[in-house]
Records
---
Amino acid sequence: MRVPYIWLPSRLPQDRDFNTMPAELRRLFSRVVAVMLLTVAWSSASPTSGAERARVIVIDGQFGDWKGVKFSDRKGWQVGLAEGPRYLYLHFRQPEARILQAAGSDVVLLLDTDGKASTGKKIFGMGADIEWNFGSRSGKTFPGGVARGATPADLGLVIAPTVGSRRIEIALSTPDGRGGVPTFGKKVRGAITTPLGANGLADEHQKFNYRRGKNRVEEPPLIELERPEGTLRVINYNIERDGLFASSRHAAYRRIFRAIEPDIVGFQEIFVNPIAGAGGLLDQWIPLDTGRWHTAAAGADAGIASRFPIDSTWLVTPGVDAYLVDTRATLGTRALVVVVSLKCCDDPEQIRKTQIDEILHFWRDAITPGGAVSLPADTPILMIGDMNLVGDPTEVSALREGIPFSQTGGGPFDPDWGRGPLLDVLPRQTDNPMAYTWRSDGNTGGFAPGRLDYLFLTPSVLDVARAFALHSSSMSNKRLREHGLKRSDTAVASDHLPIVVDVTSR
Ligand SMILES: [Ca+2]
Ligand SMILES: [Ca+2]
Ligand SMILES: [Ca+2]
């Protein structure tokens, strides 16, 4: 079991006041905002395009969906609530950025789910039925007035983003009276506070009230699993410590691969098995009309399987490979696929930053004449993988925008062939208003599901036709039947979900 989060100081660069930034930083900040707008535009346009736009909230670390939801506000804390058919959604803005699930983060959520002071823990004039400590990643419910330990899975708790942020959005399941989730009544009360002072909790706290039915939202439309005609389907799949090769998981993987039918698969966590073995399994499960699946790996961990020939392979840095795939049959050109497994968790964060710099060094070389590697201009590039981005949010922007941490490899550059930043595709689950890609119910660290896996691509030469994460547990029986899946399949296969993008050449 690897613990996927690390500790970082709570104050992060985005706390800086925009107006006091030096000009260079302001320029950088404007670029970040532009990219964020691009990402929001994509994520809000894709699920609703063509259909009447219903009000939806997606737990994806983007906050445009909360616009207009009323906030309580006291001493720099703001809280807003909404509810959908399956979840209660809560958004809060903190006085400063935090990595919420890191030891030393000191935010506690109290929720009086039935609005009755007579049930739950008596505190701040209410009866809190759920207490969740984000920093220690532990919680309690109070059935019959007795405290009982609760996990994120017990509560259906999902948190975004996984990187440090001032703004946080969470979801809690609302299946009244079922499982470990306390009953939700007509009125919900709560408080966000810190575990200091008397009572184990700070006197300074942000209280809030919510009347059920006030901010109702819909769930986003289902995303179809089929690959749109004429597109190239690229998926990323962290297979959890060679789990693809465990025969006990084969039936689940077979159903998943048959439901998704990828053209190219980027793998992570192939440690001891040969990548050719992955190709052999795909030959059994989703055989090609002619020939066999192509595979390549430059080292352990990352690897690729492809319907199309793989012309070149580079070891970018340990855990990161790049492959030139002959995708001329669908894209009209070859594509570079960078498969990434960044250092996780307890490892020093500097390792991950060094890996990011080495990726950017390779990238700049690849899109520039001379040096060790040079691609034909405007070659489509995808970067997919388990990024393990769980700390400093600038690790995401560094990759997307081409901003190395160290100046020794050169300064910032535009990774989309000199035209700007990469697109962060940000797929959400087909049948769930969530964008998490990692979920390990009962993990000893108490971590809530989170977004660890990413798909980035060069938007000036690639269009996205469809994108999603497959999470079988949140699909209806009808949908599971339609796609030949079993409810437990994605959880049996891996602690990561497969994430999918269908692209065409622009
Ligand atoms: Ca959101
Ligand atoms: Ca109560
Ligand atoms: Ca070059």
---
Amino acid sequence: MTFVQLVAIVVHEYEPAIRFFVDVLGFELVEDSPATTTGGSPKRWVVVRPPDAQTGLLLARADGQQQAAIVGNQHAGRVGFFLRVDDFAAHYQRMVAAGVEFVGPPRKEPYGQVAVFLDIAGNRWDLLGPAPQANQADVRAASQLGSGRTPQGAATMTDDDKYIRRAIDLARQARERGNHPFGALLVADERIVLEAENTVVSQNNPTHHAELNLVQAAWQTLPSELIRRSTLYTSTEPCPMCTGAIFWSGIRRVVFSFPALDLGAMAHDRFCGPCRQLFERAEQKTEVVGPILPDEGRQVHLGFWTTA
Ligand SMILES: [Zn+2]
């Protein structure tokens, strides 16, 4: 039998990490024994594991500056771990009560209910409920969360670049799930507070564009002051429907990657156009920034809008 036995999570200290996984997530402490680093200093071999699971987590205390620097960022901000549970609501409520930080509200996906949370180190996890039909396709879909290319040139990235790349990643995920290639996210106080994808196909609803999904989730879960000071990032310039929704939501800054006119040329559509023209009709001003990294934004559309 071949299987992944252990995955290491780099943490600052053993005890808080053990408490998090055992007390909050309900894992078992499988092993906690003395060991030594390759440099000869003492460490502990600490393994936790969900009951009945095969794959465990090695809680590795950061040794030195280089390791300390990646605590909580092992996956460069992507979701790196996926925890599937039988009773989503019970787990979610227990974790919220225990103070676990969730990045967004629970949402329903074709592969089950999902909510993104941060572990004790700050790594992103998906909490996943049971798949509607527990077949291989669902498991694959869940494992593809957070997949995609790694952004290049991180050293010179602006914040707008960084968030736009994340929006493009979400668009790629949407496409991988059989939806249209669009993604959007909301940033407030220099952090992502919500993410959304296009779900037109999976939810069989032509209005479920990424930006509209995002605006609806924002109003259901976030305080209005937070929404008003937030920025919406989207992989492709918003269509007229979403431009309207963004305006009515109170969001007053929009950053996009791929221009609507370019998409229109690609998809043989003339309905979408510069969103600035719509926003400009309002007395309350909305700042529009873009195109940002349009070549990267274009990539997710390639081969999708073929009419043949
Ligand atoms: Zn739209």
